[in-house]
What we know:
- This protein is mostly helical.
- The protein has helices at 2-18, 24-44, 48-58, 61-115, 118-121.
- The radius of gyration is 28 Å and the shape is rod-shaped.
- It starts with a helix and ends in a 10-residue tail after the last helix.
Amino acid sequence: AWYERLAELAREQVGCIAGDAAGLADLVERKRAVMGELERLAAAAPGLREEWESIRGSLSRGEAEPVEAELESTAKVLEAVMKSEEEARRLAEAARGAVSEEMKAAAEGKRAAAAYGRAAESKPRFVDRSE
């Protein structure tokens, strides 16, 4: 269930980066909480990875089949998480690039305006209409 939550958050993350930047901070916190829970669970079962082959070998065929199916399902969920994470990274890079280009264009526009004296022209001028 934790991996499914992580996959859901990863999909949401892509949507936030693509358009709902306001929800991104909340999503990151929820994702951090899920990752913390997964880390806690991993810490609660030290040595399980090292012992897994022995445990798997001790299971009967009937016991092993549902375990293998669950492991395969979890692997697919993790693959989906990785794909969503990669998509989120790609979108974030594209967004950063676009912002960077906009900032460069704005800076170049200001430099050009200053070089050609247009900056002074764009300031409001006082016109004496008292006469």
